[in-house]
Amino acid sequence: MPRSDTDPRLMLLSPGDSVYVLRDQIAAGETILVQGRKVAISAALGLGHKIARAALRPGDKVLKYGAPIGSASAPIAPGDHVHTHNLKSDYTATHTLEAARANAGEKS
């Protein structure tokens, strides 16, 4: 059940997750509620992107689907967009699939 103190466009996939997943787009400059806190969104965000539920420090694990997907690489405030600019993946050491493929080719 969605929380009444959180924008209905945000979906929590598992109770322990540190991020919400967008169920719809959010426009740049829009103010939304994240767990009762008003948060201004600085850039347009699309379906499927992630927003922090709570503050994260560099090194903190980021949980989605109840599992770690990476670590914060910079401070992340509640409502901040969580993406490659502030998240180091636990699955690929690079920020793009192209770079991962290139690195795999170099190691062969």
Description:
This is UxaA family hydrolase. It comes from Paracoccus mangrovi. It holds the Pfam family SAF. GO terms for molecular function: hydrolase activity. This protein has 108 residues and is mainly β. It has one domain: Archaeosine Trna-guanine Transglycosylase, Chain: A, domain 4 (Roll). It contains one helix and nine strands. The longest helix has 11 residues. The termini are far apart.
Brief write-up:
The chain is mainly beta and 108 residues long. The protein contains 1 helix and 9 strands.
CATH topology: Archaeosine Trna-guanine Transglycosylase, Chain: A, domain 4
SSE arrangement, N to C: EEEEEEEEEH
Judged by helices, strands and strand pairing, the structural class is mainly beta
Supply the CATH class.
Answer: Mainly Beta
**Number of strand segments:** 9
- Contiguous low-pLDDT stretches (5 residues minimum) are none
- Overall pLDDT score: 89
Put simply, the count of helices is 1
**Distance, first to last CA:** 48 Å
CATH architecture designation: Roll
Label this structure with key terms.
mainly beta; globular; Archaeosine Trna-guanine Transglycosylase, Chain: A, domain 4; 10% helix; four-stranded antiparallel sheet; three-stranded antiparallel sheet; 108 residues
What's the SSE blueprint?
Blueprint: E1 10-11, E2 19-22, E3 31-34, E4 37-40, E5 50-52, E6 61-64, E7 67-72, E8 81-82, E9 87-89, H1 97-107
Antiparallel strand pairs: 1-2, 2-5, 3-4, 5-8, 6-7, 7-9
